[in-house]
Amino acid sequence: MRNITRIRNLQRISAGLKRQGRKIALVPTMGALHRGHLSLVTKAQKLADTTIVSIYVNPKQFGEGEDHERYPRQLSADRAKLKKLGVNILFAPDDAEMYPGGYSTFVEVEGVTSKLEGVHRPGHFRGVTTIVMKLLQAASPDLAVFGQKDAQQALVIKKMVSELNVPVKIVVAPTVREDSGLAMSSRNQYLNEEQKERATCIYRGLRLGGQMVIEGETDPARVVESITDIIENTPGTRIDYVSVNDANSLDDLDNIGGRALISAAVWLDGVRLIDNIVCAPGRRRKKHRHD
Ligand code: PAF
């Protein structure tokens, strides 16, 4: 596995690979790699000849008072995991490389970024789209793989590459869960076993909501209420949002008539967790797919 830290070097290597006709996949991450990330890598490897994984804890997507300083950084353990999987290139730049002094250019997707996560994390998506655009410029991949756990992020990135005519295919891979149902997240490292057990209320709630929709409930408010009850009955929780939206546009729904994204952001003992499922009336979800 090649370890690259400079954008110019990655651009040069990527251009060389392209000349050889190789298909390149990029898996952007912030490190602290878990099985969810590794499933993105495996997906990338299936779809491309060369897989580049980036690890960069992007300061511009963390708001004031958020966990940028505390965010787990485990570069040597991550490197070992990626090497074992047979990843071709690890791109792990530092802040000076990504945002040199006087940095002033940002990418902003309007509309879809002002809902859900955007309400509670102002500026977050501006940071995400900016860094993802920079990573795409650095790696020039044919495809880039993101996780469905960050459903809104995936939609925002798809919109960005479409509207800015970036020639890359965005692939979204299913959420990977613990046996308990808890969605894999680097932030789960902030939780002990007992807290993780309580955190399963989020997926339990979402699943119940999904079941209600499958069984014919069309009123989003009733779905939200049932999920909220389950989460609020769990000690130590505080809900940022539980929401049912159109799965493609994230539009608010008066009525659930097609594919709906049911999503939640919940604080558990001071740790913010997000999760979602996609469901449609009368359509049973495949187990642990489309989450
Ligand atoms: O999903 C993440 O880990 C991050 O938001 C991403 C896409 C790597 C951008 O920093």
Give descriptors for this structure.
alpha/beta; binds pantoate; 291 residues; 9 helices; 37% helix
Structure report:
The chain is built from nine helices and nine strands. The strands form two sheets. The protein has a six-stranded parallel sheet, with helices on both faces. It has a three-stranded antiparallel sheet with strand order 7-8-9, covered by helices on one side. It has 291 residues and is α/β, with parallel strands linked by helices. It has helices at residues 7-19, 35-47, 75-85, 95-98, 117-120, 124-139, 151-163, 193-214, 220-232; strands spanning 2-4, 24-29, 50-55, 89-91, 143-147, 169-173, 237-246, 260-268, 271-279. The model has no long low-confidence stretch (mean pLDDT 96). Helix 6 crosses helix 7 and helix 8 (193-214) packs antiparallel against helix 9. The radius of gyration is 19 Å and the shape is globular. Strand 3, helix 3 (75-85) and strand 4 form a beta-alpha-beta unit. Helices cover 37% and strands 19% of the residues. Bound molecules: pantoate (PAF). Pantoate binds next to strand 2 and helix 6. Pantoate (PAF) is lined by residues 28-30, 58, 61, 128, 131-132, 150, 153.
